[in-house]
What we know:
single chain, mainly alpha
Amino acid sequence: MDFLNNEFIATIVYAVLALLLMFVGYKFFDMITPYNFAEEVKEKNPAVGAVIAGIFIAVAIIIKAAIV
């Protein structure tokens, strides 16, 4: 992975990878829970919004730890 020596390209690659993994983590958690997050957000359920924010923060912390 010689192209990752360029800091700009490495940052872009890691950002795209992080977004992809966040999406996968959200979809996985949505699959294993008994309710649909998209419908709950449409109904303006603030608790579901907090859960989704927590998922994104947790996945971001894991990705940061894996990259560094």
